[in-house]
Amino acid sequence: MQAIKPESLKRCEDDMLLADLLFVGIGGFSGAILRYTLSKYLGKYTAFPFGTAFVNLTGAFAVGILAGYAGLSDRTNLLFISGFLGSYTTYSTFMLELYSLLQKKRLILFLTYVSLTFAAGFFFTLSGYWIGQHGLSFLL
């Protein structure tokens, strides 16, 4: 029986780190493209930032489902939660849009957007988590 050499363990850790980064990167690339496309399409004809609200709320729902489902592997979490949903949802754009609404003195839209995003986002996350834990059996 051969002894395991420390340098072979290091190479194994590096390979796992590289694979993890690849999963996050593929998910991130996909999520960013979808967010950009939806934000541009949905926010095109209105002063209210529907595109960002939509991606943040659907992202909150999706992360709830994934977090509530206990059967996901670490790599699946990296791909979908850290990668895809991490780039699909966008806190920085949300903050910039809030600032823009205040600058334009659109206080009602500002308050609506803040309330909608936080209240509905929390509700969507809780709903998604519940569905992730129970599946769709409650419908049957």
Overall outline: globular
Query: What share of the residues does DSSP label as strand, in percent?
Result: under 5%
Average of per-residue pLDDT values: 87
Alpha carbon gyration radius = 20 Å
Helix segment tally: 5
Number of domains: 1
List the SSEs and their pairings.
Blueprint: H1 6-42, H2 50-68, H3 74-88, H4 91-103, H5 107-134
Helix pairs in contact: 1-2, 1-3, 2-3, 2-5, 4-5
Summarize the structure in words.
The chain starts with 5 loop residues before the first helix and ends in a 6-residue tail after the last helix. It has five helices and no strands. It has helices at about 5-40, 50-70, 75-90, 90-105, 105-135. The relative contact order is 0.15. It has one domain (about 5-140). It is mainly α. One of its GO terms (molecular function) is fluoride channel activity.
Give keywords.
140 residues; mainly alpha; 80% helix
Q: Quick recap of the structure?
A:
This is Fluoride-specific ion channel FluC. The chain is mainly alpha-helical.
